[in-house]
Amino acid sequence: MTPVTPDLPGALRERLLRVLAAATFIIFFQAFMVAPVLPQLGEAFGTSPERVGLIVPAYLIPYGVATLVYGLLADRLGIWRVMSGSLTAFAVLTALTATAGSVEQLALWRLLTGLGASGVVPLGLVLVGRLFPYERRGRPLGWLFGAMAGGMAFGSTFGALLEPFIGWRGLFLAVGAAGAAILLVLMPSRGIIPGAMAAGADLGTLFRGYRDLLVSPRGRRTYAYVLLNSMFHSGVFTWLGLYFERRYGLGPVGVGLALLGYGIPGFLLGPVIGRVADRHGRGRLLPLGLLLGALAAAALILDAPLLLAAVAVTVLSLGYDMTQPLFAGIVTALGGQRPGQAMGLNVCLLFTGFGLGSLLFGSMLRLDFGPVLAVFAAAELALALAAVRLFRSEVPPAGGGNR
């Protein structure tokens, strides 16, 4: 079980939670503001949206892989040193992305930003595990995943809405400045952020740590679902901007408005979903969240009115909000004395899944959106049906504990 720091005053703990949520929000805003403007970036660099779309996995996959390193560094050096360095890299590299003069340069800056920025969110999740006991982590995890969802929602919406006015370069400069401002706000809290959580270890010990995380049925099923569910959501979401442009003939502003519902459920209901999970068990909500994702993707196949498609986007978001935060809640109980390693693996698989899902969906677009959406929806439905049995033991402590 992750060691908890119970003696921190509640007001300081809540303030730190809010700042972490703000940092999470801006990082996800930056990650998802790109997807809806892929057609505009294609025009700016004289190439197709499918080719420029490679900048999405160019950011997400390095981000996911680097989280493994940051989690281990935090266990050894302390959370504050690693988190502040990563947030600094995020602010600087995001601003420098505005200097790109080609798709190749843009992809390189995105890759470097992914490597530099990936220490903030996983360590924020680790902090929740340190500062809140397992039976009360649903609400703070709901805040952080709500901030992720809000960043997705506002990033996808305002990325599309603002690009015609300030340009894609202006977007990156503004987000870089916001990241620097959050770092300044976070600095007064550095004294209450825990130090090193574990002594240094050789490679054999580190690999045994990953083996121990994956050897138990609980660890295997949780991490597998984190990867597969993130592939589904990113694969569908990354290409929604192009979907609405081609299916409904929308421009940047119309695309932004159509995507407005993505992230709203988590932004508004994240803590509520967390409390419900704490009270009734994650195993009861997870299959429902997976089912909602499958139904939303299936609805996008239909030749439906624009309003119905926008509602499907909102339901897709709700499916994410009822799955990935709950998986993270389980992971916080898997790490033992190395919570950074456990959460690093979680976020690694989350973002690697984001990148792979985006690549897979894009590579299948030659089949058109309908068949690709049908494949993704069928896969998510299979995950939902299997989850009924696989996660039935994820019940509140009063019901027999989590195993």
TrEMBL record:
Main localization of the protein described in the UniProt heading: membrane
Stretches that traverse the bilayer: 16-34, 54-73, 80-101, 107-129, 141-162, 168-187, 223-244, 250-273, 285-302, 343-365, 371-391
Record's bilayer topology term: Multi-pass membrane protein
Molecular-function GO term, any one: transmembrane transporter activity
Domain Major facilitator superfamily (MFS) profile: from-to ranges: 16-395
Keywords: Cell membrane, Membrane, Transmembrane, Transmembrane helix
PROSITE patterns: MFS
Localization per Swiss-Prot or TrEMBL: Cell membrane
Ranges in coiled-coil conformation: none
InterPro entries: MFS, MFS_dom, MFS_Efflux_Transporters, MFS_trans_sf
Keyword Transmembrane helix among UniProt keywords: yes
UniProt entry tagged with the keyword Ribonucleoprotein: no
SUPFAM superfamilies: MFS general substrate transporter
CDD domains: MFS_NepI_like
PANTHER family for this protein: CHLORAMPHENICOL EFFLUX PUMP RV0191, PURINE EFFLUX PUMP PBUE
Entry protein name: MFS transporter
